[in-house]
Amino acid sequence: MIAIVEAGRAGLLGPANWARNISAGVVVGVVALPLAMAFAIASGVKPEQGLYTAIIAGIAVSLFGGSRVQIAGPTGAFIVILAGVVAQFGIGGLLVATLMAGVILVAMGLARLGGVIRYIPDPVIVGFTAGIAVIIWVGQWQSFFGLPAPDAGPFYLETWRLLGSFAQLHWPTTLLGLGSLALALYGPRVPGLAKVPGPLLAMVAATVVTVVFELPGVATIESTFGAIPRSLPTFAVPSIGFDDVMLLLPSAFTIAMLGAIESLLSAVVADGMAGTRHDANQELVGQGIANIVSPLFGGIAATGAIARTATNIRNGGNAPIAGVVHALVLVLVLLVFAPWAGKVPLASLAAILFVVAWNMSEAPRFIRMVRRAPTADAVILLITFALTILTDLVVAVNIGVILAMLQFMRRMSASVEVVEHTQSSLRHELADAGMDSLPKDVLVYSIDGPFFFGSVDSLERALSWSRQPPRFVALRMERVPFIDATGLKRLESTIGSLRARGVQVLLNGANMAVLRKLVRAEVVSRDIPGSYFKDLSEALLYAEAQRVSNDDEAAASKVP
Prior knowledge:
By secondary structure, the protein is mainly alpha-helical. The protein is 63% helix and 5% strand. Helix 5 runs antiparallel to helix 16, helix 17 (363-372) packs across helix 18 and helix 18 runs antiparallel to helix 19. It starts with a helix and ends with a helix. The model has no long low-confidence stretch (mean pLDDT 90).
């Protein structure tokens, strides 16, 4: 379901639909302008590279993604991982890692792995997102307060050094940052400014103040990074060696996974707002194409942006036209207003990122989950959050997912029960077998739940009698949805040990998928009489027949 094709089928590309989408695209382009530059600077690259990314990725995802209202570009979620790649491998390494991430995303989409992303638990997503937000917030203190740059080191050491340097804060920069923060938050509430995006209002007002009053010591884009070029990006293939691929593969995979999570979350939000349905696999392909093309023109990693997508929908955007127009607006800014963009003070961009970090953190949701979620989920959330801050995002997500999987398996194994049935609970089965009572020396058990490696102990505990064992154990398997290799091995072992004690296990009632596995593992076989029965009634009749036969043989042996 390619976005541009789907929009054409829905009749959304006709002239009657242009006005609303052009209007939405213009608004989104205006919103994207300060964010694209702020995210680029925070990621350790030049501000124009953020604009290149928003232009190229915006067009690619709008045309080839799986949602016809998705808006893509650089986002705050990438800042931590991209800044780490730039610090270790330089901008060239970042371009290579982004291109590799694009290839991974395309492969994931073609392999139809779009639905797998939904299995990453909420505590992990909320935990690492909140951790990223804290890192972004602290990372902007230097620009917001005009502090000296701290020495490189772990995040907690940099934070400590920044706290120790607050006595050296630059007051003009700080006041400009506070004013920008106030405008970003409350500017749209001023009468007459309701339709002006807060980030744009903050950026423009801070730039005007900086230019008019020539504030001394206030860092701007131009004074820090040089003038923004008034030209479109040029095509250049980053040099890629085998050693580069091996070194950058972990970072590329992290970028791909983060991009997949962010874009699909954005698509889900868009579906809820616009009443549409996205194609998760095609969305991954579209994001992959964007991240392959973006570094070829000097751009960085991109993904679906929830805030910009929501802005698009709220302003009437319902087709890829809006995403393309948003990119063209940024092209116009790049070609016409680049000299003015160079005058933007870094303090105003830091203020914008403060707002982005707060929104990313979802602090109310974070607190609510810590207070109300099951204890294990709250612990996973806090561990993921702490590891994101104290180590890095890769470690945090990996450990968070592993802990969530272990917790899931613990809950699954705890939910599996091996129940011993009484005669009163088997009235219907006994009636079907034409019996008034349960045959002597027969015990009936049922396994309720998936029989996998985490739940096999429950069966062994149930069948470890301290009293004299019965002659027959009928094991009902109607409620076993699946069985894994460990379950098969332990079931075979249990049957063997019981047979050695003179107990015959009568398996019955398994569904076809489970039965095929039992046959393939030779737990059930035609060569093992009485190893399996269609249902409990047949098993009970077999046990009774065996008992009668054994009793007759015993009686005959006593005749002289």
